[in-house]
């Protein structure tokens, strides 16, 4: 009887040890590693985050929030903006734009899609928020972590569209799906969708008019608008990045 009990105890100990080992291995995520002296942040996404070296003449101030995101941080941080106009969570990967980001091995990758995932954007770009869009985000997250990169999800920035004096949006399903994936995979989420809607409601249509690069463009931003949106993102960065924010950016 005693021998049997000792055998059971040894088996139980072995199982516990194996589970503990798996737990430790599972905990070895990029998020748990300390940051170095220099920190690199990559951004992937669409035109609202993209950089514009040669903006069109009718939108000479056209600026993506990713283009000016680095201005929120001190000299220890550099930003690698891979966001590109017209891309969705599907087409960004299909065009092989993701592999160079992984190869660069930044410390963080901020992931913002949604605008071009919506219906009407064409089969090469469209995704369903609850299925293919969520699956795409999960794949980006897993591959980033496998490469030693810390993923950060960003819900799609709202368009500057108003009805009866209030900002309205069609991007809620994609914002909700982004937050759900973040909860499921324990990934930090910057809820830029909610933050931008709140800012537009506070300022109103007229008060935020200079956020647009021209009067007819309600999706993209002027430099002033992009800086305001970039600050909203900076206010919600992961805790490990907050000490690297400039004082004026973190206080706004």
Explain briefly what this protein structure is.
The protein is of the alpha/beta class.
Mean pLDDT: 90
Number of E-type strands: 7
The helix fraction, in percent, is 40-55%
Q: End-to-end distance, in Å?
A: 70 Å
Order of helices and strands: HEHEHHEHEEEHEHHH
DSSP helical segment count: 9
Query: Largest sheet, described in full?
Result: 5 strands, parallel
Shape: globular
- Give the spatial strand order of the biggest sheet: 2-1-3-4-7
The SS-based structural class is alpha/beta
Low-confidence stretches: 1-27
Radius of gyration: 21 Å
Question: How much of the polypeptide forms β-strand, as a percent range?
Answer: 5-15%
Description:
- By secondary structure, this protein is α/β, with parallel strands linked by helices.
- Helix content is 41%, strand content 11%.
- It contains nine helices and seven strands.
- It has helices at 2-27, 65-68, 91-94, 98-104, 132-146, 172-185, 192-207, 223-234, 247-251; strands at 39-45, 77-81, 108-112, 150-154, 162-163, 166-167, 189-190.
- A five-stranded parallel β-sheet has the order 2-1-3-4-7, covered by helices on one side. Strands 5-6 form a two-stranded antiparallel sheet.
- Helix 5 crosses helix 6 (172-185).
- The protein is globular.
- It starts with a helix and ends with a helix.
- 39% of the residues are buried.
- Residues 1-27 have low confidence and may be disordered.
């Amino acid at each position: 009887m005693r021998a049997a009990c000792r055998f059971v105890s040894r088996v139980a100990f072995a199982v516990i040890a194996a589970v503990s080992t798996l737990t430790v291995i599972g905990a070895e995520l990029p998020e748990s590693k300390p940051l170095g002296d220099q920190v690199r942040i990559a951004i992937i996404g669409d035109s609202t985050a993209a950089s514009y070296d040669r903006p069109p003449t009718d939108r000479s101030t056209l600026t993506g929030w990713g283009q000016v995101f680095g201005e929120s941080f001190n000299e220890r941080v550099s930003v690698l903006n891979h966001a590109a106009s017209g891309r969705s969570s599907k087409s960004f990967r299909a065009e092989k734009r993701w592999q160079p980001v992984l190869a660069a091995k930044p410390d963080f990758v901020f992931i913002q899609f949604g605008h071009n995932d919506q219906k009407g954007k064409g089969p090469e770009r469209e995704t369903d928020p609850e299925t293919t869009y969520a699956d795409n985000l999960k794949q980006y997250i897993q591959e980033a972590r496998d490469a030693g990169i810390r993923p950060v999800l960003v819900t799609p920035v709202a368009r500057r569209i108003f009805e009866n004096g209030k900002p309205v949006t069609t991007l809620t399903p994609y914002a909700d799906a982004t937050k759900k994936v973040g909860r499921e995979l324990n990934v930090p989420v910057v809820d830029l969708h909610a933050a931008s809607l709140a800012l537009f409601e506070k300022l109103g249509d007229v008060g935020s008019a200079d956020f647009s690069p021209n009067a007819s463009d309600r999706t993209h931003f002027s430099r002033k608008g992009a800086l305001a949106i970039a600050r909203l993102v900076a206010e919600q960065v992961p805790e490990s990045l907050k000490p690297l924010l400039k004082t004026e950016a973190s206080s706004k």
